[in-house]
């Protein structure tokens, strides 16, 4: 066992509303030695599997190379016949969100943005793992579909498709067949799948813009496609700014499944991605506008303890944007007129990274060591999708710090104490190792990884045997209620995860334990690739992210941010 002097901290807010770490006293902490952690090779093995989940979620006409034997063509009439004035009649393709057959653009586009971010940073690691072609194919399947959901050739639009398919938000009173009420293989769906459009949806349009902008960097060598993505991103972002509104305020399904609390964070996130994709300084000026940063920060604070602060999710992208903009400050240091906000975001990023560390008690942890970023809310179970995003951010930020200045030890200050980047990576590893089986249940929460993983995954396609029999809407209910394991293993699916007591129930009907999602797996893939391989030879790719940005005068690296000044 090891003894460390650790600074205990409290949190207070300064006049700008920023969370500050304040050292109060020193205490001795005892850290017990733990069993050896999985090798980097196990992260690569898990990465292979986690990517396979996206193959299992594909909608539309599948190629022979989908590698998921129990899936086939499905929902080939999505969008047809089109509603009068609809922007498109072909909405075939894309991804099913989770264990159902609904296609939600809001979480799906965030999932694709995260995957693109991971490819831009870790292209060489994907190549070393022989997964680069696969991940690019996964992203393109998503972006090809997004391009169908609005008039992508226009410069100005007045609507976008937000959803295909329908959930059941009335507790089951309505027995009209839909994608939640029915338990059917997607290949067998015969009921009507409505198309939902929105005309005031700043958050959705901006997230879709971020997704296309990030993908345009991934596909920069395919100039025609990259150009098409950039144009679509600009059109979507203009729409998001011209007509203000939350996409979920006009849709009961969206509000129930993926309610967006604000669009200000998407504004910062999307304008950051557009600035990197285009090199146009007007986007960077917007991303660093103090008023926009203030709106994005305070829109997460509906109550006094900021439940979303520092938590990257499909609803809140501010911390992701802050990390991306800190990347700019560390490597290019553009100075005036961006410096005030960039310095503030750098400080904020440091503070958030400190808050993830076990030395501090900003976030609770389960006895097994899983960080509780969802604050244990009854309305927000499903902890793992938040954990994987934090693990990715901590790892990529540690790589930024190492790449930024090789003349001195890389790390960050939390209050008066200096922590090496190794501490950030250790945080990420302990969280991912927990998910891969190093937990009180000795359960791998990634299906098909390890010897002990969930067998009753909440997933229609994986739980119904593919036979000559076509099960009806309610005919499939017997499969939902079956106590037998799923007939098919949905390889790589990360389930929702354990409760705050490390408990887990492998029960198909309980989606809060056993349902996987696109968003969860995207964060998992990003974290796994970041942790995989040899960090001494395979760090981040410093330059590709900024390839569209005009050259700036070389400047010395900025001073380290102080944790106690905004």
Structure description:
InterPro entries: 6-hairpin_glycosidase_sf, 6hp_glycosidase-like_sf, Glyco_hydro_9, Glyco_hydro_9_Asp/Glu_AS, Glyco_hydro_9_His_AS. This is Endoglucanase. Belongs to the glycosyl hydrolase 9 (cellulase E) family. Its EC number is 3.2.1.4. The strands form three sheets. This protein has a three-stranded antiparallel β-sheet. The protein has a two-stranded antiparallel sheet with strand order 1-2. The chain is globular, with a radius of gyration of 23 Å. It contains 17 helices and seven strands. It has one domain: Glycosyltransferase. Strand 6 and strand 7 form a beta hairpin. By secondary structure, it is mostly helical. The N terminus is likely disordered.
Strand segment count: 7
Structural class: mainly alpha
Please compute the radius of gyration using only Cα atoms: 23 Å
Q: Helical segment tally?
A: 17
| Overall morphology | globular
Order of helices and strands: EEHEHHEEHHHHHHHHHEEHHHHH
* CATH level 3 topology: Glycosyltransferase
Helix content: 40-55%
CATH architecture title = Alpha/alpha barrel
Query: Distance N terminus to C terminus?
Result: 37 Å
Portion of residues in beta strands equals 5-15%
How are strands sequenced across the largest beta sheet? 3-4-5
Number of domains: 1
Largest sheet: 3 strands, antiparallel
Q: What is the typical, i.e. mean, pLDDT? A: 87
CATH class: Mainly Alpha
Chain-wise SSE layout:
Layout: E1 2-13, E2 19-31, H1 40-56, E3 103-104, H2 105-128, H3 132-148, E4 160-164, E5 195-198, H4 202-218, H5 223-242, H6 252-257, H7 264-278, H8 281-287, H9 290-298, H10 318-331, H11 339-356, H12 384-404, E6 411-414, E7 417-420, H13 421-435, H14 460-463, H15 477-481, H16 511-514, H17 518-531
Antiparallel strand pairs: 1-2, 3-4, 4-5, 6-7
